[in-house]
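About this split. The held-out portion is used to measure sequence recovery: a designer receives only the structure tokens and must propose an amino acid at every position. Recovery is the fraction of positions where the proposal matches the reference. Here is one held-out target exactly as it appears in the evaluation file.
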């Protein structure tokens, strides 16, 4: 026991040394706090938790709280008292009572105290320390607040744009080598309330469940646990067969059931606070119960039964679509709705925010409104697979809030991480804000995008009001701008064939699944463009509650931002805004380009507030983002013009590129240098 306490204290010291050791390169994330010399006295008020020695591991978060506050809380003339108190908020919530002579942080759990400590430090860093006599009370709005890492066991990261995995490597076992970094990762997560992490890709290798790999998981779990973070694993549904132990993976086969029970026992014997499994089944070629004539319910419930005795959960993904589906957006609803109410209570259906796939903008997935007797949690993508990777600076809180404001998130929420082993973790200092914002919204979805951006900027780039205001305004404008220069008005999935960075609305080679080609989605023709999902088309609108279905079904009431998602609209059709579709489309793309060019100028104005290293790195990226916006606009408008045969409106600037050139290159950038990978013309 004593050893354990010492380990926490020494490890915390190590983290602090690492933090002190380098320049402003983004490594410290939003925890760039100056160490204090006049340390505040921090006392633990529970007699069963000794100040030193004999420290039960379950109290490790208290040791970390004390160490963090001792090191970083400025002397306010008040002592800090930490206490686990049964009467304090449950569910890892906390109170901070800011008295005249003392500050009390209380929670019903040790990790709740840690969240309180980080909250107090955040208030200090953002200049919002409580007033004398004020009591702050916080309680998380979502129970499971998880990151999903799409990290492969060889160290690559699917859709990762910030280097390689911090957990896995082709070199073999890197847990010890990376332990300081993994600990910083845990600390950053705890500081924003994230309480679980899935360590491997949903396209899961069966090798994840070998005893050798599980030993690595055990060691990672030990680094994360003191910060209140549980580990979860993505599992390959065919693991029992793939690992050669059983001849099938049929979820109703007694040998398969036994195999999973034994595997789960093996895991919990080694990792008592293991969280559970995440499963991508019968999706994009991954194995699943349907391979054996069984259903999602059969598969999920079998795993849930194995995990139940230990308190583990199954997160079963609803991301399914078939090659021959006339409308991919319909499938998840069609496939899962009949099972509503049939899943075990430790199964959670994990549903992407929109019905297609993390597009720059999608309407809310209809399953959130309809699965009334099943636990459901949304999955967001923090990594910018479809929003300019780590090159474009796009602040995603406004996009997520379009969903989180409308749905129940009390069960939980998952975010596909943008973390890699790059020095600044995310490959771009500004999009660290998306990791931060994800955690803050998981904790409290009522926070505004502006408040979160303000907090982030004050803790990372500058505390000067003018700089904060300018940078937060810029951040708040980035998502709408990106939608406008990539795919405004409900256009979706018109990305390049081999990657999802640049535009290729024309991509449709013979032999490629049509639902993997842009024309399936934009449906441009001589009449107009857009996917008819009305009652006269694929009838996707009918998957929504009546009020929304009616709104979306009528071309005159459908919000413009979803117009071409739900309707096939004529090029010369007049829209409620007074313009024709063609003119409006041209103007929206122009708006996007103008905004992206504006970001370059705004960033230049921010120079006095930003350190040289990060200023220069982001200057190059904003410059590239503006160039890419032009590329997107020219590519899309010139291509759609081959159908509309209409001239650009007079107030639109001339194109910079011609269609032939655009079609010759695949716009693609190096995520670190933001330099073109193809030999692009200027
Ligand atoms: C992990 C999209 C991505 C895939 C991803 C998949 C999923 O199709 O392009 O890389 O696979 O979604 O969410 O399972």
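Reference sequence for scoring:
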């Amino acid at each position: 026991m004593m050893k354990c306490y010492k380990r926490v204290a020494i490890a915390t010291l190590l983290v602090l040394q690492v933090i002190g050791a380098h320049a402003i390169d983004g490594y410290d994330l939003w925890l760039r706090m100056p160490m204090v010399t006049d340390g505040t006295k921090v006392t633990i008020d529970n007699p069963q938790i000794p100040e030193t020695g004999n420290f039960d591991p379950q109290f490790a978060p208290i040791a970390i709280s004390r160490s963090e506050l001792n090191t970083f809380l400025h002397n306010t003339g008040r002592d800090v008292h930490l206490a686990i108190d049964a009467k304090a908020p449950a569910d890892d919530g906390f109170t901070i009572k800011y008295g005249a002579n003392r500050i009390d942080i209380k929670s019903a759990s040790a990790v709740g105290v840690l969240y309180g400590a980080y909250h107090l430090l955040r208030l200090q860093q953002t200049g919002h320390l409580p007033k004398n006599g004020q009591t702050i009370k916080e309680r998380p709005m979502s129970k499971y607040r998880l990151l999903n890492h799409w990290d492969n066991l060889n160290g690559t990261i699917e859709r990762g744009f910030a280097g390689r995995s911090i957990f896995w490597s082709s070199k073999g076992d890197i847990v010890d080598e990376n332990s300081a970094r993994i600990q910083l990762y845990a600390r950053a997560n705890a500081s924003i309330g994230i309480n679980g992490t899935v360590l491997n890709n949903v396209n899961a290798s069966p090798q994840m469940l070998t005893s050798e790999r599980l030993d690595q998981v055990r060691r990672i779990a030990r680094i994360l646990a003191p910060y209140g973070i549980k580990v979860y694993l993505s599992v390959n549904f065919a693991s029992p067969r793939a690992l050669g132990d059983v001849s099938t993976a049929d979820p109703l086969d007694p040998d398969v059931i036994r195999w999973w029970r034994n595997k789960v026992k093996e895991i919990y014997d080694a990792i008592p606070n293991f969280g559970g499994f995440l499963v991508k089944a019968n999706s994009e070629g991954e194995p699943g119960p349907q391979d054996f004539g069984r259903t999602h319910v059969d598969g999920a419930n079998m795993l849930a039964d194995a995990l139940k005795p230990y308190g583990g959960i199954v997160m079963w993904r609803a991301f399914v679509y078939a090659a021959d589906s006339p409308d991919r957006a319909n499938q998840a609803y069609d496939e899962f709705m009949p099972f509503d109410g049939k899943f075990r209570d430790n199964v959670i259906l994990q549903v992407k925010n929109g019905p297609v796939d993390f597009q720059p903008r999608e309407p809310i997935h209809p399953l959130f409104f309809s699965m009334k007797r099943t636990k459901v949690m949304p999955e967001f993508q923090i990594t910018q697979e479809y929003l300019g990777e780590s090159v474009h600076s796009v602040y995603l809180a406004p996009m997520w809030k379009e969903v989180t404001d409308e749905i129940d998130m009390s069960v939980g929420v998952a975010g596909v991480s943008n973390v890699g082993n790059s020095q600044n973790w995310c490959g771009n200092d500004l999009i660290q804000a998306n990791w931060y914002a994800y955690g803050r919204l998981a904790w409290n979805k009522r926070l505004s995008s502006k408040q979160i951006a303000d907090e982030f900027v004050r803790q990372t780039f500058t505390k000067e009001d003018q700089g904060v205001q300018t940078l937060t305004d810029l951040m708040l404008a980035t998502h709408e701008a990106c939608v406008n220069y990539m795919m405004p008005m409900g256009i979706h999935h018109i990305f390049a064939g081999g990657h999802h960075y640049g535009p290729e609305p024309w991509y449709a080679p013979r032999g490629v699944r049509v639902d993997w080609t842009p024309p399936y989605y934009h449906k441009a023709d001589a009449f107009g463009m857009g996917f008819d999902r009305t009652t006269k088309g694929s009838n996707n609108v009918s998957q929504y509650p009546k009020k929304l279905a009616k709104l979306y079904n009528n071309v005159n009431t459908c919000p413009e931002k979803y117009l071409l998602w739900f309707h096939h609209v004529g090029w010369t059709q007049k829209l409620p805004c007074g313009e024709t579709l063609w003119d409006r489309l041209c103007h929206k793309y122009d708006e996007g380009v103008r905004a992206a060019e504006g970001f370059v100028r705004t960033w230049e104005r921010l120079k006095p507030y930003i350190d040289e290293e990060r200023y220069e790195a982001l200057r190059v990226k904003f410059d590239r983002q503006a160039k890419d916006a032009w590329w997107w606009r020219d590519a899309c408008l010139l291509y759609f013009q081959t159908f509309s045969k209409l001239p650009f409106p007079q107030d639109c600037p001339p194109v910079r590129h011609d269609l032939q050139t655009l079609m010759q290159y695949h716009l693609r950038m190096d995520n670190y240098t933001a330099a073109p990978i193809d030999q692009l013309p200027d």
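Annotator remark: Residues 612-644 form the longest helix (33 residues).
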